[in-house]
Amino acid sequence: MTSLSAPYTVEFPFDRTVGPKVGTFLAGLREARLFGVRAPGGRVLCPAVEFDPETAEETGELVELAGEGTVVSWTWVSTREGDPLPHDFAWALVAIDGTDGSFFHAVDVGGDPGRMSTGMRVRVRWREVRVGEIGDIGCFEPVPV
């Protein structure tokens, strides 16, 4: 089997102020708590946003989430400087339980791509020292069966 590779950079090279919902989401991360936000029509979005990406309406109440979900899609990558894990891992879209949409983050299966699969159950692994940023979620890891 031939393997394809391409350089990539995951970054958001801009600064922005946060509103009350994103601010609470980030403060929750510092406390090892995961929040979503209720959108018009009842959907719950995570990460929390101030405005519904589909309707542009203001979102509503914050909803605390358990921090577990299901891998929807993933790709395996070789680790490089600045990545969240010291060994090869998957970038994945994780559907957090009780939410609509998916959350982009790293999944750690110990460097073994054979342990990674679509549909697998994962949970948040919190960093030991948290400061109120998305990196406070060190990665997702498989839920023991």
Give the gist of this structure.
This protein is mostly beta strands and 145 residues long. The chain is 8% helix and 32% strand. The chain has one domain (20-142).
What does this structure look like?
It is a single chain. The protein has 145 residues and is mainly β. The chain has one domain (20-142). Helices cover 8% and strands 32% of the residues. The protein has 1 helix and 8 strands. It has a 5-stranded antiparallel beta sheet, with no helix packed on it. The chain has a 3-stranded antiparallel beta sheet with strand order 2-1-3, with helices on one face. The mean pLDDT is 93.
In which order are the strands of the major sheet placed? 6-5-4-7-8
What about the largest sheet? 5 strands, antiparallel
What proportion of the residues form beta strands (DSSP E)?
Answer: 25-35%
From the N-terminal CA to the C-terminal CA, the straight-line distance is 31 Å
Oligomer: single chain
Order of helices and strands: HEEEEEEEE
Low-confidence stretches: none
Amount of helix: under 10%
**Number of domains in the coordinates?**
1
What global shape is seen? globular
Q: How many distinct beta strands?
A: 8
Radius of gyration: 16 Å
Give the integer mean of the pLDDT values.
93
What class, by secondary structure content?
mainly beta
Number of helices: 1
Properties at a glance:
1 helix, 145 residues, five-stranded antiparallel beta sheet, mainly beta, three-stranded antiparallel beta sheet, 32% strand
Topology:
Elements: H1 20-30, E1 34-38, E2 44-45, E3 62-65, E4 68-77, E5 89-96, E6 103-107, E7 121-126, E8 137-142
